[in-house]
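User: Um, what's this?
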Amino acid sequence: AKDDVVQPLDCSPGFVEQDDACVLDADARWDVIVIGGAFEPTDPDGNDWDLNDGLPDGYVVIEFGAKPFEAETDPDSEKLNPVWNDTLIWAQSASELRTHFRLSLYDFDSYDITGDDLQASCTITLPDEVFEVEEFRAQDVDGDCPSVRLALQLN
């Protein structure tokens, strides 16, 4: 009968039909765009970010994969809400991106002998939902993550 015809699912790009559901295609290739971030008014110790009441010079580091790959943005100087709009990662499989995805937000300190200040860092498993939205905030995926907005775009 006509009612027995199963209609294919209308899966989002980068997803495939499997067992009557749309699931992330592990082999689909994605770009990772770092959009922007937010710093607290003071560093984690409650001090000013830089000498002379300076604001942070924020940058993001992303590490992922079974064979660790690392990429970072350039610092965006003197801002509590830096904006990068920087594609850090190109054409990586969803399965590789979901392996040991580590995100860190730093304040670049060119004159500090102790190095750059870490605002926050986390290692997360990217849920399927973040591959379907225009952008997401890492802190919404895991409360330990820095406040960084990311986008995943199908390559």
